[in-house]
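Entry 12.
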Amino acid sequence: MKMEYTDEATFITEEVEIPDEQFTVASGLHKSFGNYGPIIVRKDKKSLCFGVNKAVRREDREKGTNLYRVTIEKI
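Predicted 3D structure (tokens):
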């Protein structure tokens, strides 16, 4: 599967090939408990990640006090 990666320093966007199986795993986990943003390609251009916000109270959710990052990489 092709996904877009945008470099933070130069804002140059390029397409990166990610294995379909890796994207399927990331999508399944994201649907299970990912509730804080999209699935993105990391800087190494080989792994995917997404955020999880486990805060219970609304104020904590807005502040982002219980944020976690889930990284999916093929080993």
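Annotation: The first helix runs from residue 20 to 33. The mean pLDDT is 91.
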